[in-house]
Amino acid sequence: MADPIKTNHSDPFERLKVVKKNFLTKTTVGLRLQVPPHLQEAFYYEAGQYLRVKIGDREEDYSITTAPYEDYIGLAAKITSADSFPAKLAEVNEGDLLTVSHPQGRFTVPQRPAEKRTILGFAGGIGITPIISHLKNILHTEPGTRFFLFYGVRNTAEIIFKDELTALQQRYGERFQVFYFYSREQNPDPLFSGRIDEKKVKLIINQILHLDEEDEESTIWDATDKVLICGPGAMIKSIANACYDNGIRKTDIHFELFESFNDDIYELETPLPYLSDIRVEIVHNRRELSAHLPNNDRKLLQQLLDQGIELPYSCKSGICGSCRCRLVKGEVFMTDNDFLTASELKQDLILPCVSIPLSEKLQLNFDTL
Ligand code: FES
Description:
By secondary structure, this protein is of the alpha/beta class.
């Protein structure tokens, strides 16, 4: 997995002992880290968060694969080449100390232990890592909630956490079902062959999430409360749009991008005045930067990222708040906002990932929130 999530990394690093290392597939290494008593509070985390790992002068982010109730922190990394960061991680031995940040990230969902919810998880390849954390956490803390996992891999040998998923199915019975989809292996049922994309989601809705035994007048899809997605950007985009087009609210679709993705997740639905030659001045991490945007036909954050400007983000859809900044000058239109409060909006805070410039001059400050 290449540097998956761009964030502000101001948290301190600590050294945690590796108590177990094993290969989860031929090319996926798993590590278990022990948190000593004096760091328990600093390493309190929510399902879906990640740690930044440092080896030498290189750093990358890795989703936590365990749930908060487990007594160690798990990480997993896919080795893509001999000089990749995960290959370095695979050289770490049991007993070594690994340098990691405190838990970070906003791919989290509030817990509802008293409710009976229906949650869907979609994972592609190594994107299973934060999803399995959510899965274990939800099954453990919400005794009335059911979870359906749709997991896309190339072939059976590439299923990460296969034994753990099977054990969870046995333990939680009807409350947890997992379906595997193979992009490079034929399955007798064509439903399970090929990538999980928009078309496949429609088939899943019609063929898997149809009859609801708990409510004969409804379908499982109708009862869905949350959708959690993690994997490549194109996969997230197609699944998120398929879910949205089929009636799930954007606020209930949560995702984590594991790679830079030069595209908006949701297309613009409101026609806006066209502007060209937009000048943007930015203050970020005490540095002053400027950018020139050709026009306003795409969201502000993506246009700035395309120009090589490093800015914090995670969901790119107005849900997580990672990209929040202050609009010091100019005007934007936010297509979505499920994060900022009315009082934050009054203080000119904006989410550039869902903002369309409406002025030819904009000033953004990421440091004064
Ligand atoms: S990146 Fe999540 S709100 Fe902007």
